[in-house]
Amino acid sequence: MPVASDETRDSGPERISEAEYAVMESLWERSPQTALEICEEVCSRRDWSLATVKTLLSRLVAKNAVATEPDGRRFLYTPLLEKDEYTGSESRRLVDRLFGGRAAPLFAQLAEAEALTEDDLAEMEALLKELRK
Fold first, then answer.
1. % pLDDT > 70, the chain
2. Within 10 Å of residue 133's Cβ, how many Cβ atoms?
3. Both ends of the chain: CA-CA distance in Å?
4. How far apart are CA 122 and CA 77, in angstroms?
């Protein structure tokens, strides 16, 4: 009997690729949309074709991340995942996988890599103050 990996045991939504995420961002911004409407937004920036967008949409439908509804000879696509839900789940996976479930080492790593701006630090300080209330 196969043993489930940590990924398949995870209760969060199924992971989506970076390319699929670009399509999701378009749908989170405005939905429902057709594949052509999504392509008009993302294809030129990423040097994609309409066929690429349709392939990514098919994958997202298979992952239950996007719903499809016939509209004449075309389909309308609507996200089934909330952006906050997905990004929260992915953030948790990152912290669990790379930092043993602790957020402090993540921030230390970002600080050491000088990846945090003064604005980032101010936002984190404000968030910490709010969380301590």
1. 90
2. 4
3. 49
4. 38
